[in-house]
């Protein structure tokens, strides 16, 4: 049934939007070292933009340090620059064999900056969800116009689509609240 495909497609796209937001929130640092902070960071290497975890191993020898060991030593400088350019506020130490990144405790000012980043990412996720809803609504209205579905079916599907949108919006907001709580604790 064509109408069901619109909702199924919207559900899949909303699910992907939620996953993207969750993945981005993991990269926002708290006071603890975690490879997830930098593993998906984009690095321009040999004409390609690759995630850092495809260029190096990332380990956490202790709770406040990350160690990046590039597989190709010639990539050390570009990895270091990518870390410096990120909005994470981290300072890499390149010793020629590996890159060490100390994770300093968060100051109150830095926590507030990170909260703004979290809220911006949550808002971007909610916008993505609303865009998926808009596209699905247009598709449903086109189906009704083409007489593929009736007006009653259209109303029913619009209600289902709104419930779906509301559910994903709540999940994104909850992910944001959880991350805000994590940023504010030590």
In short:
By secondary structure, this protein is of the alpha+beta class. The protein has two domains: 2-26 and 107-184, Ribosome-recycling factor (Topoisomerase I, Chain A, domain 4, Orthogonal Bundle); 35-102, Gyrase A, domain 2, CATH 3.30.1360.
What is the makeup of the main sheet?
Answer: 4 strands, antiparallel
Overall mean pLDDT stands at 87
Give the proportion of residues in helices: 55-70%
Radius of gyration: 21 Å
Named CATH topology of the largest domain? Topoisomerase I, Chain A, domain 4
Number of domains: 2
Question: Strands, helices and their partners?
Answer:
Layout: H1 2-26, E1 42-45, E2 48-51, E3 56-62, E4 65-70, H2 76-85, E5 92-94, E6 99-102, H3 108-145, H4 151-184
Antiparallel strand pairs: 1-2, 3-4, 4-6, 5-6
Helix pairs in contact: 1-3, 1-4, 3-4
Give an overview of the whole structure.
This protein has 2 domains: about 1-25 and about 105-185, Orthogonal Bundle (Topoisomerase I, Chain A, domain 4), CATH 1.10.132.20; about 35-100, Gyrase A, domain 2, CATH 3.30.1360.40. It has 4 helices and 6 strands; from the N terminus they run αββββαββαα. The chain has helices at about 1-25, 75-85, 110-145, 150-185, and strands at about 40-45, 50, 55-60, 65-70, 90-95, 100. The strands form 2 sheets. A 4-stranded antiparallel β-sheet has the order 3-4-6-5, covered by helices on one side. It has a two-stranded antiparallel sheet with strand order 1-2. Strand 1 (about 40-45) and strand 2 (about 50) form a beta hairpin. Helix 1 packs antiparallel against helix 3. The mean pLDDT is about 85.
